[in-house]
Structures are given as C-alpha cells and as structure tokens.
Hints:
Layout: E1 6-10, E2 26-30, E3 36-40, E4 48-53, E5 59-64, E6 71-75, E7 81-85, E8 94-97, E9 109-112, E10 117-122, E11 129-133, E12 145-151, E13 154-159, E14 164-168, E15 171-176, E16 184-189, E17 194-197, E18 200-203, E19 207-211, E20 215-219, E21 225-230, H1 231-234, E22 262-264, E23 272-278, E24 281-286, E25 291-295, E26 306-310, E27 318-323, E28 329-334, E29 338-343, E30 348-355, E31 359-364, E32 371-375, E33 379-383, H2 385-389, E34 401-404, E35 410-415, E36 421-426, E37 431-435, E38 440-445, E39 452-457, E40 463-468, E41 473-477, E42 482-484, H3 488-493, E43 528-533, E44 543-548, E45 552-557, E46 567-571, E47 577-582, E48 588-593, E49 599-603
Antiparallel strand pairs: 1-2, 2-3, 4-5, 5-6, 6-7, 8-9, 9-10, 10-11, 12-13, 13-14, 14-15, 16-19, 17-18, 19-20, 20-21, 22-30, 23-24, 24-25, 25-26, 27-28, 28-29, 29-30, 31-32, 32-33, 33-34, 35-36, 36-37, 37-38, 39-40, 40-41, 41-42, 43-44, 44-45, 45-46, 47-48, 48-49
Amino acid sequence: HPPTHLVATGEYGESTALDSDNKPRILIWDDNSGSTLLRIRGYHTHGISHMCFTSAGHCLVSVGMDSHNSVAVHQSSTGALLCCGMGDRQRIFDLAVSHHGSDDEVSELCTVSNKVFKIYTISKGSGELESKKGIFGKQATCQEIRCCAYLGQDPVTGQSDGSIYLWKNRTCSKVRIRAHTNCVQTLSAVQGNRFSDGGKVQYKAEVISGGDDGMVIIWDANLNRLWSKDMNRSYGVSSVPTPGFAAEDEHEDDDWSSGVSVKFGNQRRVTVRSVCNVGDEILVGTGEGDILEVDKAGAGGSEHSLARYMDGHCLGEIAALAVHPTMQHFATGGDDGRVRIWDALTKQAILPFYCQGRVRALAYSPNGEVLAVGLHSGELVICDVARWMSPAGGSNKLTPTSMTVSRDWIHAMAYSPDGDFLAVGSNDHNIYILNTTAYSQCAILKGHRNHVTQLDWSIDSTTLQSNCGDHDLKFWDARFGKQKQIRPVAARDKAWERHTCVYGWPILGVWPTLMEGLPADSNRVPNLTCADRSTPSGSGQPASVVGDTEKRVRLYKHPAIGKAPAYREYCGHSGPITQTMFTAGSRFVITVGGADRTIMQYEYDD
C-alpha cells in the first residue's frame, strides 16, 4: 500500500466457483503489528497470482488463477468488488497499474503473458473491465513477454531476449534492443518522483529493470540509461563483515573442472527477479532466494552500497541440518548445493559456500572444528570450517577432503562422541563407519531393507541406533560392524548423545497423538520425519521436539510415553518438516522445511 503500512497477500486453493466457502482469500495486513485487517473472498477461484495497489492505495487489482486468469478490482478499505473481467487463457506473468488519473479509481492497467500484451480500461457504461491486445508493429518482435510497468503514462514491457518495449496507444513505439544481455525478469516504476507543476501533481518518468544477467538499470522516459548496478560484482558483500569470508569475485569462473569440491561466497551468476525503490534505496530480490538493498547514491563500486536482508537456499528442498556442539551456530544444506553456516544469535549467515552437488546431510565433529557434508552423489566432503572462519584461514579454504563413500545418496550422518568415527547412512540401505584419522572405511553395517534416515550414537561411542524408510529400529556394535540384539529394557536405559531417531522407546507416545488436530474426515496418515532431545539443565526434565509430514512442530516432555502425552504445537511451515534440532545448551530450536525451503528459529525455555 503506497502511503501506509498495509500489505496484501493472496492465497492458493483448489476451489471452484460453486465452492464459495473454500475460495482463496486476499488478506490485507498491518505490517507493523502483523494483524489481519481485511479478508476479501468471493470472486477468484483456484488462487491469486498477482496483485497491485493503485497509486493512492484506494483500490487493489488482482489476477486469478482460473482458466481465464480473471482480473478484479476491489476497494481496499471495504473489500467491495468494483469491476472485473477476463484476463487471458495463457498464464499471466505480470500486472501493472497506471499511476495517472484520479487517486480513487483505476484509469488503466496492463498484463503480459507469453506473447500477449493487454491494456484494460473500465467501461463507463457497464462498469466492466475491457481489454485490448497490444500491436507489436514493424520494429518490435512478437516474443515472450516477462514483465511490465508504467513509465509515466505509458506502459513498458520486458522481453525474453533482453529488450525493453515502450508502448503508446496500444502500439509499440520504441524498442531498446538488448537492454539486458539476457531475459528481463522485472520492471518497476521509480517511486517518490511526484512533483507539483502549477498545482497539478506530475510524475518524473523513470523505470527500473532487472534481468537474468544480474544487472539493475534505471531508464528515463526515452529509455536512456541513467544508472546501473552489476549485482554479480557486488553480490559477495555481506551487511555484516565476516572474518575469513572470501567473496565469489575472487574466483575466475564457475566450472568445477579443476577438481575443486567447494567454492566460497555467493553464486557468481545472479539472476534478478524483483526490484523496488524508495528514495535512493533499491530493494533487489534474486533468483537465489536473497534480498539485498542497493544505495544508488553510493553504488559506484563501494562495498558499503550493498546490504543483505535475507540469505537462504533456492531450488529443490532443504534436507540437511547440523548444530555446532558448543557455539550457537548451525549449518543448513540443500539441493541448490549451498551450505550456509548461521549464527543463531545474530541470525546471519557467517560462512556461505557451495558444493558440487545436492547437499543431503550435514554433521559437526564433537569439537565443532569440522563439518562433514554428504552429497546426493554419495560423495563426502570434509570441511575444516574452524580454519576457514579464522582470520588467517583464507589461504587454506580451497583444500577440503573429499571421497566417495557410497554409490547412492547420503541420507544421514553422525560423529561418535569421542570423535573417532563418522557413521554415514546411505540410500543403498547400508551404514558406513569411517575412522576420522584418514576417513577410511572400517566397517559396513548391513541389515536395513530401505534407506537409512536417522543415526544416533551412545554416549560411550560403542553402540549405534538407526532408523530406515521401512520403519525399522536397529542397534549396532559399530566398532565390530555387527548388529546387536538389545532387549527393550536395555534400550530404554541406554544413554544416547542425541535422540534423533523417530522410532524408539522415548517417543513411543508421540505416534498415537499425530492424528490429533486433523479433520475428522481426513484420509491422510501423518508420519514423524525428525526428532531431537534437549540437554537437561539442572534438575529440569529434558524435552523432545518433533516434526511431521503435516507441517507441525511439537514439543513433548522426554521421554514421551503413555497413551496421550501432553504437547505444545507450533505451526509456520507450509510443507513437511525435514529436520529439527536443539542448538548448544538447548537455547534455540531450529526447524527446516523441505519444500518451502524455510529455516525457522524458536527460543526454547524449559
């Protein structure tokens, strides 16, 4: 909302026109308090893909996800439907609203789809939206259009070949060929350029573009370049200086032909997906899942002109989580090949690096100096993170130890408490025991009938317990590579360093409670996906935190036994929880969502 602190979001759903109770909603929020001020429901079905406020914020324009990609205009204060109309049968990529005309009405808006540009106006007779397709003319090429915005009174569009088209009266009047060297992904009108001319409010016409080439460019009304920033050259700069941090700019190329298994900093080829400005600051959202702020006034190559507000993962899912044994640090890894070491106190990524493959498992050594990274290829990478993060560690950063442990991907890893062994659970149903002196194989534990999912060591480093995808719980004499038959009473009394296994005596009572909270007619069968146990403090009782396939995080007393143990439930993820762990001293709980690629941090108070 332009003049206030209101934000609008749209839902995704599968409802039909007749299913009015489950139609997707538009929610208007107060971004200061986080409270919901207005719920709008009734017109759109299936979902809402795009929304845009008018210049004064009195109206909200939205695009639905039905077969016609319908367009609607609602009054933002009451939610009343003012007008509506069909969009396009092809998927709509972007929506823009003209900032000209009366502040309390929509004068014109436009949408873009594959090779279609449409301008919409409100019919004064019927009050419906009327649309007309744009005419490319002789100088423009009819090609995929990715984004749109208004440059003064005239719309502009970004094309897949990097060109920008300026439109007047539905006809393409000017073409800026190769404005970007790759696809233009986003356009945004420069805000804050209102000025008074003889008592009439005017707008200084400027627009910002961002593309797959990593460039952010400001254009004037004639599509002349006014300012530009190459995010590839500055992307490694963090808002919090980090000792031993090597920016990606220090490396010549992005290929892995030299045999290097780890690279540092952020990905070199940045793709800009969203831009927005207020004054001299430009917010940049990247395809790599990061949000950065650029200061136009100080952007001439200065490192201080770039601040990072969000750093995360992109592509696939986040499957790996490990916590530092003594410090409030934790590491995450995902299918994008990124490994991020985070400081839970500052909530900042303090060491980002890349691996050559999808990261599926992580484990810290007992002293916290080494981080083991398990890849989808079955390769294991041993990273001396303590040296990498030290001020003098830069020269040794590109010398990790790597070896192939399995022919299939690695699911789970755990160091023995004495630090002598690393257990690696694989998709090939086996557990590989490596000695940590040279990370050579000293035993293979065979017996599971499905992929190994969790591993826990006993405190004396002699026994290993494991779960697999076939719902098995097995015990092993890890030093001799043999399966152990342990009576239930002995298993109950065994002291484990952590308890991440989702099958076992300490969390027997969790499983019967999983159906609680689901609809009575639900045919879903929830499963536990992850678990961990807190470190008891003083005479306090430890707790178990678990995550499940129903997006829920629950906290139980440990052990959670009996028919209906009490619990507290926390919701926030939009998909199954892949990992959850207590940090050192059980100060925080970290949860990781797979499909939503979200990392959440909770403060734990026992």
